[in-house]
């Protein structure tokens, strides 16, 4: 049976999270000592391979892959080490500092900036054709500031989605066959709903992801300074202030506890969520089945960039200090092959990084018309326009919180848009100047 997987898991495994991937205990095994020479044979030697939180629920899948690969390549030994999510960042940093690194390691794209300088340029180990099997929007962002390709994509939780309570939206003659596709259209729908009902319509407010959907560059090319303090960004922020002031945007939208907003689809205190974490649909189904039955699912709204932003994904890298890079690269090519990614997707509600995987009937022939089935269909449809929005800063989460704090001050009128952006720019530059 396919298991569900929370977005928090998919994007923040390094911080620890909830089922089904959570493991308890410490890191098993010891990193092999750093070798001074490469084996020179891509099909020989030991490959120490780190993953995140897979042992408990997916050991059979992993061990089957290892057995199949080593049967084909008997001179290769795969030493699988599964690391608890809350430990991966500190353990990998410690391994890099000691020189005793894994040969291949799973981490998240949101921590790319922490590890980029210690990772091998994979364009030296993967051919152009081999790299071409990964979706460009997922693979191309996995480069360091100097252009080195320091990771390849593995799996993700899909883009965000739009959820619309058709029962509440009857008051404005909402057509679920023609939902908003742009942020401006979502703003217009929110205004119409509030005018008709005097109730809040949505929680959508400016964020890093929202600015990225307009094509706003958040960081300079070298990733050392903020780049978003522009007139264009200020104009985007200014779209939202009138809606917040009128109540069309729910007053609780500026809460610092974004996982527990006071006005939600669940409690019917907002009518729609046009750019929502996809796994929140499971929460609606569990907490408010009557609302769930009324939900129409659509692609998320976007700005002007015609792309859907992924807030992060699971990736693989090969540390520079690995003594068996060639064999490590061959193993990663096998793990991330379209066939092996498809097998993994059949076990858990995740999405692949290879376009070929999505051509399988498992994805092209999704049955059912319930919201969950429609969500899966829609996530597959958004794949060609999905882009990893990770910043590569080394501390993406903190930068997001700093930006959110300024938006939370701006919307109630404590600052102008220009003041909020300037303050966010200053705090980002301070954070970016810290030694990693």
What spatial order of strands do you see in the largest sheet? Answer: 2-1-3-10-4
Q: Radius of gyration in whole Å, from Cα?
A: 22 Å
How much helix, percentage-wise, in residues? 25-40%
Number of helices: 19
Largest sheet entry: 5 strands, mixed
Note the overall shape.
globular
CATH topology of the largest domain: D-Maltodextrin-Binding Protein, domain 2
- Rounded mean pLDDT is 90
CATH-assigned homologous superfamily of the largest domain: Periplasmic binding protein-like II
Distance between the termini: 42 Å
- Beta fraction: 5-15%
Would you identify the CATH architecture of the largest domain?
3-Layer(aba) Sandwich
Number of separate structural domains: 2
CATH class of the largest domain equals Alpha Beta
Could you give a short description of this structure?
The chain is an alpha/beta fold.
Outline the structure in words.
With 436 residues, the chain is α/β, with parallel strands linked by helices. It folds into two domains: 7-157 and 311-372, Periplasmic binding protein-like II (D-Maltodextrin-Binding Protein, domain 2), CATH 3.40.190.10; 161-309 and 390-432, 3-Layer(aba) Sandwich (D-Maltodextrin-Binding Protein, domain 2), CATH 3.40.190.10. 38% of the residues lie in helices and 12% in strands. The protein is built from 19 helices and twelve strands. The strands form four sheets. Strands 2-1-3-10-4 form a five-stranded mixed beta sheet, sandwiched between helices. Helix 2 links the parallel strand 1 (45-52) and strand 2. Helix 18 runs antiparallel to helix 19 (417-432). It is globular.
């Amino acid at each position: 049976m396919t298991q569900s997987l929370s977005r928090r898991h998919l994007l923040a495994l390094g911080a620890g999270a909830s089922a089904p991937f959570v493991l308890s205990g410490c890191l098993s095994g010891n990193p092999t000592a750093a070798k001074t020479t490469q084996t020179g044979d891509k099909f020989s030697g030991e490959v120490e391979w780190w993953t995140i939180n897979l042992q408990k629920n997916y050991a059979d899948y992993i061990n089957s892959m290892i057995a199949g690969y080593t049967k084909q390549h008997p001179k290769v030994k795969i030493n699988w080490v599964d690391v608890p999510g809350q430990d991966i960042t500190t353990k990998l940093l410690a391994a890099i500092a000691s020189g005793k690194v894994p040969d291949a390691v799973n981490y998240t794209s949101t921590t790319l900036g922490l590890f980029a300088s210690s990772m091998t340029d994979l364009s030296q180990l993967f051919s152009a054709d081999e790299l071409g099997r990964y979706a460009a929007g997922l693979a191309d962002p996995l480069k360091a500031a100097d252009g080195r390709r320091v990771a390849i994509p593995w799996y993700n939780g899909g883009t965000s989605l739009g959820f619309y309570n058709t029962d509440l939206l009857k008051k404005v003659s909402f057509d679920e066959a023609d939902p908003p596709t742009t942020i401006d259209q979502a703003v217009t729908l929110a205004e119409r709903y509030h005018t008709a009902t005097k109730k809040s319509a949505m929680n959508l407010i400016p964020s890093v992801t929202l600015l990225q959907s307009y094509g706003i560059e958040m960081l300079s090319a070298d990733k050392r300074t903020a780049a978003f303090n522009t007139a264009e960004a200020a104009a985007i922020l200014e779209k939202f202030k009138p809606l917040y002031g009128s109540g069309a945007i729910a007053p609780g939208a500026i809460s610092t506890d974004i996982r527990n907003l006071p006005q939600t689809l669940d409690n019917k205190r907002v009518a729609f969520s046009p750019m929502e974490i996809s796994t929140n649909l499971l929460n609606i189904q569990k907490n408010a089945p009557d609302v769930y039955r009324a939900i129409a699912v659509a692609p998320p709204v976007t700005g002007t960039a015609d792309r859907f932003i992924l807030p992060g994904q699971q990736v693989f890298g090969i540390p520079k200090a690995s003594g068996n890079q060639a064999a490590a690269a061959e193993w990663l090519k096998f793990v991330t092959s379209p066939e092996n990614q498809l097998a993994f997707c059949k076990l858990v509600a995740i999405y692949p990084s290879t376009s070929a995987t999505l051509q399988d009937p498992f994805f092209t022939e999704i049955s059912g018309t319930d919201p969950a089935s429609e969500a899966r269909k829609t996530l597959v449809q958004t794949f060609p326009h999905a882009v990893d929005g990770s910043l590569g800063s080394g501390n993406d989460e903190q930068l997001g919180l700093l930006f959110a704090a300024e938006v939370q001050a701006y919307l109630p009128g404590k600052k102008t848009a220009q003041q909020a952006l300037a303050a966010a720019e200053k705090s980002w530059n301070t954070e970016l100047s810290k030694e990693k």
